[in-house]
Amino acid sequence: LQSLLNGLMCYKPDDPIEYLESCLQKVRELGGSEKVKWDTFVSPEKKTLPPLNGGQSRRSFFRNVMPDNSNFPYRRYDRLPPIQQFSIESDTDLSETAELIEEYDVFDPARPRPKIILVIGGPGSGKGTQSLKIAERYGFNYISVGELLRKKIHSTSSNRKWSLIAKIITTGELAPQETTITEIKQRLMQIPDEEGIVIDGFPRDVAQAISFEDQICTPDLVVFLACSSQRLKERLLKRAEQQGRPDDNLKATQRRLMNFKQNAVPLIKYFQEKGLIITFDADRDEEEVFFDISLAVDNKLFANKDAAAG
């Protein structure tokens, strides 16, 4: 090792990896590491060791291939310019001042925070139906994250950023996390006096869950609607016929189901470790599912007082 370091310091080769490979080849020719001395790779002439393949070195190769003509588009050894990274969030042409992520409190710290219920599940599991029922029973406000994004896309169809997001959603992928969080925050700040809020369809993965907690709050309850893949597909096909949503096309549906399968287990585990999630069998009739959800909400959020009437 000392001899190799001495050789590196002495020669300062342009390609240290190739130099070290040549040194190791010489060690084998000498008969092993016990034959190596501290100055084995140091000589007064400072001649470069021959390449392993016996041919021309990499640098001489580039000298022959890359002409010295100053008009050649890339001069020898010049580095190529860095690749400019494109970001929906940071591109100056796409950003809007009102949508920049800021450090602010969504809820007034001087007032009681509204109860927050998150309803999650696969596409077609009945999140929207059950969320509306919960909101109606307890007098809570209802927010559909998917509907928030679709309305934003429709109202800003000429905006490049939202045109890109529309394409992302149409292919079945998740909308950019910070954009989604910003839309949720802006909506929550419009309804500061609510006793409770039911949020449908968020989060979709652990990263979104962490971002929600960091920027908004920790939810009071997470309702997970477990549904078989076959039932999800049947419901999505039926919904596509009835509503004609752009993200209910066959390709997008398959992609959304795949994303859900990949993200569901770690997301559920994340909320389980916090003791926040309750799972319900959503393959049943929606009224049966809602009955069980109501009992859970009564017990979790209204255990010390009478449940909401009705």
List the topology elements.
Blueprint: H1 2-11, H2 16-30, H3 58-65, E1 115-121, H4 127-138, E2 141-144, H5 145-155, H6 160-170, H7 177-189, E3 196-200, H8 206-215, E4 221-226, H9 229-243, H10 250-273, E5 277-281, H11 286-301
Helix pairs in contact: 4-11, 7-8
Based on the model shown, name its key terms.
310 residues; Rossmann fold; 2 domains; five-stranded parallel sheet; 5 strands; elongated
Give your account of this protein's structure.
This protein has 310 residues and is α/β, with parallel strands linked by helices. The chain is built from 11 helices and 5 strands, in the order αααβαβαααβαβααβα. The chain folds into 2 domains: 1-35; 115-303, P-loop containing nucleotide triphosphate hydrolases (Rossmann fold). Strands 2-3-1-4-5 form a 5-stranded parallel sheet, with helices on both faces. Helix 4 crosses helix 11. The model is unreliable at 72-78, 83-87 and 89-101 (pLDDT under 50).
